[in-house]
Amino acid sequence: MYQTTYHRASSVDEAASLFGKSSEAKFLAGGQTLLPVMKQRLASPSDVIDLAKIKDMIGVEASGDTLTIKAATTHYDVATSDAAKKAIPALAYLASLIGDPAVRYRGTIGGSIANNDPAADYPAALLALDATVKTNKRSIAAGDFFKGLFTTALEDGEIITAVSFPVPAKAGYAKMRHPASRFALTAVFVAQTKSGEIRVAATGASQSGVMRVGAIEAALKANWSPSAIDSVNIPASGLLADIHGTADYRANLVKVMAQRAVAAAG
Amino acid sequence: MGVEGIGARVVRKEDKRFITGKGRYVDDIKLTGMTHAHFIRSPHAHAKVKKIDSSAALKMPGVVAVLTGQQLVDDKVGNLICGWAITSKDGSPMKMGAWPAMAPETVRFVGQAVAVVIADSKNLARDAAEAVVVDYEELPAVADMQSAIKAGAPQLHPEAPGNQVYDWVIGDDGAVSAAFSKAANVVKLDVTNNRLAPNAMEPRAAIADYDAAEEHFTLYTTSQNPHVARLVLSAFYNIAPEHKLRVIAPDVGGGFGSKIFIYPEEMVALWASKKVGRPVKWTGDRTEAFLTDAHGRDHVTHAEMAFDANNKIIGLKVKTYANFGAYMSLFSSSVPTYLYATLLSGQYNIPAIHAEVIGVYTNTTPVDAYRGAGRPEASYLIERLMETAARQLKVDPAALRRTNFITQFPHQTPVIMAYDTGDFNASLDAAMKAIDYAGFANRKAQAKSQGKLRGIGVSCYIEACGIAPSKAVGSLGAGVGLWESAEVRVNPVGTIEILTGSHSHGQGHETTFCQLVADRLGVPISQVSIVHGDTDKVQFGMGTYGSRSAAVGLTAILKAMEKMESKAKKIAAHALEASEADIVIENGEFKVTGTDKAIAFPMVALAAYTAHNLPDGMEPGLKESAFYDPTNFTFPAGTYICELEVDPGTGKTSFVNFVAADDFGRLINPMIVEGQVHGGLVQGIGQALLEHAIYDANGQPVTASFMDYAMPRADDVPSFNLSHTTTLCPGNPLGIKGCGEAGAIGASAAVINAITDAIGKNNLEMPATPDRVWRTINAA
Ligand SMILES: Cc1cc2nc3c(=O)[nH]c(=O)nc-3n(C[C@H](O)[C@H](O)[C@H](O)COP(=O)(O)OP(=O)(O)OC[C@H]3O[C@@H](n4cnc5c(N)ncnc54)[C@H](O)[C@@H]3O)c2cc1C
Fold it and tell me: Rg of chain B's alpha carbons, rounded to an integer?
């Protein structure tokens, strides 16, 4: 790791102002992505501004038809939150599948979506549930937030403060774990909104990051059941291929995981 | 056996320090004035080193030196060696390409060091390393064996035309051809034994400390065999004579073979410490471990097995290509030859065997012994062949094995090994019973009704352990003898120190070795300590690998104990005014048999040191030593059966049951044995399902971190069902066979046999990743 200056911010405003004063600052939340990269000397921020202890950025709340997860809430806290388990059990389940216990105790939802790894879990939930990303400047619909591999709509110095999820009528998540990293080799989140819209998002599959799967959405709209997906054709072109999964295999997984997610959603 | 004697499940003495974070590893050691080394490593798989410009780095704060491969050559530091000479079938010696500790001219794998920065801290050394400019001229590289042996392939070493290390044969070609010509059935199989990265929990590390006044070096290093390290560093690398070099291997966090070998880093640390006049420390990180720790396995094999009309095996022929990587590591030459082909008879009566092994250089990390070393490759091949044969001949796989088991001992195989004892039917029976083999068909049908493909796979392994009779290995080309030494030092207060040449890096010697002493003397193990891993304390030793520490190392301790006891009995007899022949040792006392006359062991020890009243002519003191050279290998064997389910939608394997019935001869501590079996099985399952060290066509490693290289985790493996059947090894007085490698040797075949049974297709390479299994299920 290169030399860096560490700051612990106590409020969102303080974090934003510290960012403005440094030449090449980075926000730090759980550190599960940023710190390994710094240790390998692949990132060299002049200043590191820790958001993880900002009280206003931690917590899970349900009110009416919305579940709000503040950005610095850890995966473990989401997985074990009664509010989350009651409002959107599939989301709490998703959080329980992230990485391993060490990662879940530290890693946060804000860090995960800011990073937008093409195999991360949360982006699929945000997209399928039509969530809204709240920042210190604005609100961004999930569909506008994810912009391809490791890219988001966030501006320099913009801080995610929370994510709000409309509570769906039904939702399910199924994940095939990457055998080494435990990220998603491919995972699918399916949701039926209270207004009857069907939204399906797959992560770990596409070369351009998290994606909606229109063909499966159409099939499920006609018939909400796992067997409705049997006849869907998912082309392998544009899908990721690596030593752990060929593009054909991932295309198959998009279908199989969607079927299992529907079965889990009930 | 007593509560702490042989056979007792004694809790490990060493675990208190390990689980409370009080272990003392090389990286925990800090010396006054210590500097830190950071190696500059080649990013290319094959390149010429044109120029190294360290001028900017040398001006940076805290930088002590930047040393290069050329300086090593100038100082006449020797190249790395391979210590086992193998002769090709045409009579020519193996072709060893020169391997300097840092490359002065040519790099041949990604991660090979070209220079080292020595600085006041590790971070400063890393900073400076980035300022060193190395000018490379890239050369074409070749990473896979099939390409490397083709005409026109990039050539690695001028010494080795065609990238061939050797072309070695064993067995009787004529007898095999004759057998095949009268075969009723021939079974053919191509298998790949995937390359593995060993990944000990503790990365390699070294601290070298040169004392200019004494012209003496001390090396702290992560070694499985510190004496062998000293021998090689002295005899071949021109570092210092043995009495001027002390090698200490303190707590070592796992080795699995990878810490047997002498690596460039410790050589460079020693040399650099003298050059800079300060201690030099190097601790590898995980990336360096992936790039530079010797890898394991990496064979491509074609085999054919001939059967007569009664399904008896009448011949076996094998042709194996073994990947050596870019250089020959310390024992690499022996692994695919004498540690592999000599086990090709498996548990079976095979009258004729012929094997040819072609060693190949590629632009990859060097390959050497890794847990099992050659024997997993042999066992995997034979057990895949047996399963394939059973399918082709349409007989039950367990029954086919039974038809061919060796049942008479000793048994001379056609490939050198003479099996001393065993009962292969007993372990097969035990495993079949434990898994309810007879009820499998029902379970399979039931799983099918739930959409799951269930399979069962048998693996009957045998290994040659207790490495090894010195004369025998000498005749096969080994550069060292493989005996072990021990010393028993009784202190005047009756506590006992056992000095051993074995080295514990996770095996629990501090407990098991004490159990032998407790067993013989009836003293508590708290009165006994084990001293190992320091060439200044222990006179000599060959270290720990090849499941040898109990069969060879503990036997040496037994021999020294017997000498010590014999003298102690004389002292006791003298004190008790009895005849030496009447003295028996019980519960820490020396007693006159049939009487209540006794003297406590500490009083005997005290008498030996006060020397006030010893038998006439007896030397004072109570200390004895012994060297023990085994007369044969030992032959642990057993049966593993795995039952699993494959999810046809994803190709993912889930274990239902895994049973192991091992014959390790006598067990010293069954709990520790179970731990060894668990670890070995996990490594075998890791090879079968998860692990694979992969290079792209240009020799770039694809799996150089845990994000890509899939190590088995606890939830990847089942809860194991272990049992033992026992035939005592006749070759050593304790009847021990060894248990350190069995799991890794036998498990992979059981898993692949089970998956291929489940999916109904025989050809499936390791690792059987979900993707690969799914594609095999769906292949036309
Ligand atoms: C071994 C391992 C396994 C993993 N497995 C999985 C998995 O299975 N599924 C999965 O989804 N993820 C996985 N992860 C990633 C994990 O979920 C991380 O928590 C996540 O990627 C980043 O979150 P973090 O809080 O640690 O962020 P950090 O590492 O602290 O930061 C990551 C990036 O986000 C920025 N950032 C952080 N918080 C904010 C904010 N509030 N506003 C704006 N920018 C911010 C940082 O500046 C940085 O650029 C794994 C990680 C590891 C190390």
Answer: 27
User: What's the token pair of residue B390?
Assistant: 């059973």
**Range(s) within chain B of domains with CATH label 3.90.1170.50:** 31-139+201-254+259-292
The side-by-side arrangement of strands in the sheet containing B205-211 is B63-68, B113-119, B35-41, B280-283, B205-211, B216-221, B245-248
Q: What is the pLDDT of residue B468?
A: 87
Residue B442 main-chain phi, psi, to 5 deg: -65, -45
Q: What is the CATH number of the domain that holds A13?
A: 3.30.43.10
pLDDT, tens digit (0-9, with 9 covering 90-100), for A12-63: 999 999 999 999 999 999 999 999 999 999 999 999 999 999 999 999 999 9
Give the whole-angstrom CA distance, residue B33 versus residue B279: 7
Task: Say which of A40, A181, A249 has its CB closest to residue B771.
Answer: A249
Query: What mean pLDDT comes out for the span A166-174?
Result: 98
Tell me the pLDDT band of B780, cut-offs 50, 70 and 90.
confident
Mapped onto helix, strand or coil, the DSSP state of residue B397 is: helix
What does the pLDDT read at residue B356?
A: 98
pLDDT in tens, B5-51: 999 999 999 999 999 999 999 999 999 999 999 999 999 999 999 99
Q: What is the C-alpha to C-alpha distance for residues A180 and B199, in angstroms, rounded to an integer?
A: 14
- pLDDT at residue B1, rounded to an integer: 52
Whether residues A21 and A39 fall in one domain: yes
**CA of B120 to nearest chain A CA: how many angstroms apart?**
16
Strand order in B637-647's β-sheet? B453-462, B637-647, B652-663, B721-724
Q: Given CATH 3.90.1170.50, say whether it is the number of domain B31-139+201-254+259-292.
A: yes
For B505-536, the pLDDT digits (tens) are 999 999 999 999 999 999 999 999 999 999 99
SS (H, E, C) B658-707: EEEEEECECCCCHHHHHHHHHHHHHHHHHHHHCCCCCECCCCCECCCCCC
Assigned architecture for domain B483-628: 2-Layer Sandwich (3.30)
A210 & A159 share domain: no
- Between chains, do A179 and B690 touch, taking CB under 8 Å as contact? yes
pLDDT for residue A1? 87
| Both structure tokens of B88 | 């090709």
ipTM of the complex: 0.96
Check whether residue A161 and residue A92 sit in a common domain: yes
Q: Which one of A117, A138, A166 terminates a domain? A: A166
Interface of B with A (CB under 8 A): 123, 126-127, 130, 287, 649-652, 689-690, 692, 694, 702-703, 706-711, 713, 716, 769-771, 774-775
Asked if CATH classification 3.30.365.10 holds for the domain at B375-464+633-778, the reply, yes or no, is: yes
Give tens-digit pLDDT for A234-255: 999 999 999 999 999 999 999 9
Asked which of A117, A148, A166 is the last residue of a domain, the reply is: A166
What is the CATH number for A90? Answer: 3.30.465.10
**pTM for the whole structure:** 0.97
First to last CA, chain B: 60
Q: Whose CA is nearest to atom 48 of ligand 1?
A: A34
Q: Is the dihedral of CA B570, B576, B577, B578 positive or negative?
A: negative
Output the pLDDT for position B488.
98
Sequence ranges of chain B with CATH classification 3.30.365.10: 375-464+633-778, 483-628
Q: How many domains does chain A have?
A: 3
Note whether B706 contacts A181, CB cutoff 8 Å: yes
Residue A131 shares a structural domain with residue A202: no
Q: Give the CATH number, domain containing residue A231.
A: 3.30.390.50
Q: Note whether A256 contacts B770, CB cutoff 8 Å.
A: no
Same domain (yes/no): A226, A190: yes
Q: Tell me how far apart the alpha carbons of residues B484 and B500 are, in angstroms, rounded to a whole number.
A: 8
Q: Which domain holds residue A69?
A: 59-166
